[in-house]
Amino acid sequence: MLKALINATIFTGNETLAGKTILINNDRIESIIDPASIPKNYEVIDCGGNYIAPGLLDLQIAGSGGFLFSAEPTAKALQAITESIIKTGTTGFLIAIPTNSPDVYRNIIKTVKANPHPAVLGLHLEGPYISPARKGAHMKDYLKHPIKDELEALIKGAEGAVRMMTVAPEICSGEIVRLLNDHGVVVAAGHSNATFREAAEGFKWGIKTTTHLFNAMSQLHHRDPGLPGATFETENIFASIIADGIHVDYNTVSIAKKIMKDRLYLISDAVEENLHGSYQHVKKHDRFTLPDGTLSGSKLTMLKAVRNCVEHVDIPLDEALRMASAYPARLINESDRGKIAPGYRADLVVFNRDFEVKQVCLDGVFNF
User: Fold this and answer.
1) Which CATH architecture has domain 56-331?
2) Can you give the pLDDT at residue 368?
C-alpha cells in the first residue's frame, strides 16, 4: 500500500505544484517530495501529465447510478449511488433527503447506519421545517413546524448519521437551531422566505450556511435584501451554489463569489430520474424537472461544476477546486479531507485538461 504518484500537476488546496511526487502510505498522504527521492519500496504510478486534486466533496446530492435514495432507501441503492458518485471524482458526499414523513426519515437513517462507507459522510435533511412559500420541488403535505421532542428523538436515534439540516429560520426558533448544533448537525438556511432581519437572527442562533444560494429563498431586493443579503453581510456564514448556469446565471455566480470569496462552495444538487412515489424527477437534456415541468435538480457532477466556474465565471482552477473540496470540508469539520497534505486522507481525483476523470483514489486505493 506504499505508492508514489508522479508526472502530474498537483493542486494541494494551498498551492499548485509541478515536478513533485505524492507519497501515499496505506490510506494517508505521507509527504510531497522530489521524484529523485522516491523510496525503493514504493509502487510508482505515472499520472500521465494530468492534474491531481483532493477528492471532491458534495454536501447535497440526492441520487445517482439509477437510484433516487429517498425513493428507494435500500442497501443496494446506496451501493449503486456511492459507486456512481465516486467514479465522477467525488470521494465524500452527503445524501440529500427532501421533506418527508418521519417513517421515511427513520428508514433512510437505518440504511445509512447499517451500511457504512468512507465516501458516505452522512445525510443532509432538507426540511421538513421549511417555508411553504419557498418549497420549490418539496411536497407541501410534509411541511411542518418543529416539535422539539420529536426532532431530538430523530437526531439522537440517527447517532451522527444526520450531518446537515436545511431549515427556514423564520419557522425555527433559536432553541431548535441550538439543539441541532449541540448534536453536531450543521444547520443551513434554505427553502426560506425570511426577511433580512429574520435570516440575520437565525445566523446569530447558530445557522452556519445557506442552501443553494438564490434558489428557493427570499430574493435580494433593494427594500429588503432577504436571505441572500443577510448571507452576504454576515462574515462567517457559508453558502452553497449550483453552478450549472440554469439554477443560477453564471453572472450571478460571479457576483456572489466576489462578495463571499472563500465562504462560497459548490454543490451538485443532482437528482436521478425517478418516475414513481412522492418525488418524481424527469430527465431532460440539461436538467431534471418535476412531471409538471418545474425545475427540480441538476445534472451536474462536482467536477463539471468546477469546470463551469473556470470556463464561465473566470474563477482560477485552483480556487474552483477549493470551492469543491477545502471549503465544504471546513464547513462540516472534516479536518482530514479537502487538501493534499501529510496526514490527510489519500482521497484523490486525477483528471485531464478536458476535465475528464482518469483515476480516482479512495482510502489510498485506485479502484474506481
Assistant:
1) Alpha-Beta Barrel (3.20)
2) 66
Grid cell listed for 222: 433593494
CA 55 to chain centroid, in Å, comes to: 12
pLDDT 10s digits, 235-291: 999 999 999 999 999 999 999 999 999 999 999 999 999 888 778 889 998 999 889
Residue 354's CB is within 10 A of a number of other CB atoms, namely 6
Beta bridge partners of 187: 165
Residues 351 and 51 sit within 8 Å (Cβ to Cβ): yes
Identify whether the C-beta of residue 301 lies closer than 8 Å to the C-beta of residue 243: no
Nearest-angstrom CA–CA distance, 3 and 292: 51
Measured CA distances, 65 to 110, 270, 271, 272 (Å):
21, 11, 10, 8
143 neighbors 192 (Cβ within 8 angstroms): no
55 within 8 A of 347, measured Cβ to Cβ: yes
Q: Where along the chain do its domains lie?
A: 2-54+339-366, 56-331
Give the type of residue at 31.
Answer: S
Residues annotated as part of the active site = 269
CA separation for the pair 38, 60 (Å, rounded): 39
**For residue 53, which of 328, 354, 350 has the smallest C-alpha distance?**
350
- Please, are residues 181 and 206 in contact by the beta-carbon 8 Å criterion? yes
CATH code for the domain defined by 2-54+339-366:
2.30.40.10
Residue 116: all three cell numbers together: 457504512
Nearest in space to 94 (alpha carbons), one of 17, 186, 156: 186
Burial class, 200, CB count within 10 angstroms (exposed 0-12 / middle 13-18 / buried 19+)? buried
